[in-house]
């Protein structure tokens, strides 16, 4: 990718100017690093997330190996290469953002950047890993707290201190901390553009599937290329969106800046705007500025449009291949258009950070630690057996959607709880899409098929399922994994091959017996509607087996023997399901899922009639 604009090497770094307000934080940082230094770096760094082989990492790392005439430093050494054992942590000053730091990592005049706090360490490592596996090593990570900075340094990830002094916990969407992170992004862009390098700025909750730099180089005259929340395709190939038809908001989770004067002016005005109002969402402010003077096509380049001040040349990245959470996970737009996706951003989801992580796991795009692929109690899975009538017959409406969803899961949770095994969730099928507003079932103009394999957070409250609920009221936790877990290449062979198949049978038939002889070539026969005692007795002999796979969960369990245990289980799983949204033209249009809908005579999937009725079934 050509260096369209080169920075003036005589210009001084402007980090101090941008972050002058937080210089006091470096004193805290200095103390942290001083304490870290006394412990030295003799302890081995934490392991890399593992799905690809270490050979892949080594080959990728060689791409950034310094030339013989260029001495190795902490910023030009191969990514994933940790510092020498026994060395001391560099001083805080070494981690300040400077032109020299960016120059050491940039390639062909471009730098790829993300940022975050310690709560997003696993997202950041996944983000870096995808890029290095693609051969892209011209990257930097901004650390918003010293804990993250130290972890990245120990793992060999090039990072700089943003001076944010931010807490290490997750920042929920819309919270004051969330808005602070947004402002930090704007400050960071303003700090980087004067260095003269093209900047591909990314949120940490996205991953790269294909090297984007050659694609971005196809549009050298664009001052700015941005992703969007567009859900209706405006093009069917890999060209930029037809900006005349884009109705979705411009999304600042993925955007590419060239260090041109119009881009710098936009960045500065954006910074001034978000700093003037703590409650202003950075993305809304960006959209307002872009559309101030929007609509004149760039002569000879109809896929670019003049925007902002009438001089900034803007292009909108195609949502089919620079995917949102909807175009990738719900529509599968790139598949239907036979395109290769470059990126997926985990937007359009309903369970916070936990939901984002789970979606990437479902798509086998998240790099977890090896411990994730094992469980002390083993795993429980089953093959869904959904009747054709529920999946395909009749109209796709609220009634048929709820009938399909309600069929799929409760018994498996009970058996997993009873056997203390981690449940591998089944693929979930939906007839209707979920949004934040009323719609006719699927968004008109989208490529959403019916029925479709829906993300787990469309139905389940993933973040609630991961909460540490009091055992006295909710019983033991039920751990779970994504539906694609057993197909993940990272699953160890010894786990995958330790498998017991279970087939349900009629207790009255001659071949069905509660006494089973172990035979690895034949499934274990389990009577339908087995009691708690029978399940515990039978499977106590198979505690060493890693995966127990049921042929079906329909009528597999006859119920808990202890009423108190069942009450706690019910208290827990009632909270596991969320709501569907939304019926059109209703003040209250959402409908709550109910894990025990079948115990309520005459239950129908209808929205609450009044505000007093507007609450989950368990409250």
UniProtKB/TrEMBL annotation:
Residue ranges of the TM segments: 14-35
Domain Nucleotide-diphospho-sugar transferase: from-to ranges: 136-360
Keyword Protein biosynthesis (UniProt): no
Keyword Cell inner membrane recorded: no
Superkingdom of this protein's organism: Eukaryota
Annotated keywords: Membrane, Transmembrane, Transmembrane helix
The name this protein goes by in its record: Nucleotide-diphospho-sugar transferase domain-containing protein
Lineage summary: Eukaryota, Viridiplantae, Streptophyta, Embryophyta, Tracheophyta
């Amino acid at each position: 990718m050509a260096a369209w604009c080169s920075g003036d090497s005589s210009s001084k770094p402007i980090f101090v100017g941008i972050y002058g307000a937080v210089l006091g934080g470096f004193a805290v940082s200095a103390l942290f690093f001083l304490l870290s230094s006394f412990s030295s770096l003799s302890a081995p760094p934490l392991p890399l997330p593992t799905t690809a082989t270490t050979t892949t990492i080594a080959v990728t790392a060689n791409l950034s190996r310094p030339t013989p005439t260029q001495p190795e430093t902490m910023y030009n050494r191969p990514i994933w290469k940790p510092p020498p054992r026994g060395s001391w942590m560099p001083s805080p000053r070494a981690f300040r953002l400077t032109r020299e730091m960016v120059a050491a990592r940039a390639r062909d005049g471009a730098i790829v950047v993300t940022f975050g706090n310690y709560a997003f360490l696993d997202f950041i490592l996944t983000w870096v890993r995808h890029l290095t596996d693609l051969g892209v090593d011209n990257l930097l990570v901004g650390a918003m707290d010293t804990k993250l900075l130290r972890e990245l340094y120990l793992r060999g990830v090039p990072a700089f201190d943003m001076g944010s002094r931010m807490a290490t916990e997750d920042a929920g969407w819309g919270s004051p901390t969330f808005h602070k992170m947004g402002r930090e992004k704007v400050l960071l862009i303003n700090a980087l553009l004067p260095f003269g390098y093209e900047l591909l700025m990314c949120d940490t909750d996205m991953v790269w599937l294909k090297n984007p730099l050659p694609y971005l180089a196809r549009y050298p005259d664009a001052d700015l290329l941005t992703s969007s929340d567009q859900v209706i395709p405006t093009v069917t190939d890999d060209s930029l969106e037809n900006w005349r038809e884009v109705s979705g908001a411009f999304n600042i989770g993925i955007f590419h800046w060239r260090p041109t004067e119009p881009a710098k002016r936009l960045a500065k005005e954006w910074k001034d705007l978000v700093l003037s109002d703590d409650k202003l969402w950075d993305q809304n402010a960006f959209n307002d500025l872009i559309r101030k003077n929007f609509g004149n096509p760039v002569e000879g380049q109809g896929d670019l449009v003049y925007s902002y001040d009438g001089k900034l040349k803007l292009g909108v990245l195609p949502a089919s291949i620079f995917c949102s959470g909807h175009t990738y996970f719900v529509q599968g737009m790139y598949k239907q258009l036979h395109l290769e996706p470059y990126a997926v951003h985990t937007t359009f989801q309903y369970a916070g950070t936990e939901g984002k992580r789970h979606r990437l796991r479902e798509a086998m795009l998240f790099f977890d630690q090896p411990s994730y692929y094992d469980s002390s109690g083993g795993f429980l899975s089953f093959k869904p057996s959904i009747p054709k009538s529920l999946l395909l017959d009749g109209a796709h409406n609220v009634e048929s959607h709820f009938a399909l969803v309600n069929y799929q899961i409760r018994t498996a949770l009970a058996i997993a709880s009873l056997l203390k095994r981690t449940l591998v969730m089944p693929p979930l099928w939906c007839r209707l899409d979920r949004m934040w507003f009323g719609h006719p079932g699927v968004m008109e103009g989208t490529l959403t098929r019916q029925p479709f394999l829906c993300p787990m957070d469309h139905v389940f409250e993933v973040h609630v399922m991961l909460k540490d609920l009091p055992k006295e009221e909710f019983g033991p936790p039920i751990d779970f994994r994504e539906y694609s877990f057993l197909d993940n290449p990272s699953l160890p062979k010894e786990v995958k091959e330790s498998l017991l198949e279970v087939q349900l049978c009629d207790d009255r038939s001659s071949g069905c017996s509660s006494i089973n002889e172990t035979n690895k070539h034949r499934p274990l026969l389990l009577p339908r509607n087995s009691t708690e005692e029978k399940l515990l007795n039978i499977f106590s002999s198979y505690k060493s087996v890693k995966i127990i796979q049921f042929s079906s969960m329909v009528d597999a369990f006859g119920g808990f023997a202890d009423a108190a245990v069942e009450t706690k289980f019910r208290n827990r799983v009632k909270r596991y399901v969320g709501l569907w949204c939304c019926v059109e033209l209703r003040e209250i249009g959402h409908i709550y899922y109910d894990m025990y809908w079948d115990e309520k005579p005459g239950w129908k999937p209808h929205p609450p009639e009044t505000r007093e009725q507007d609450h989950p079934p368990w409250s």
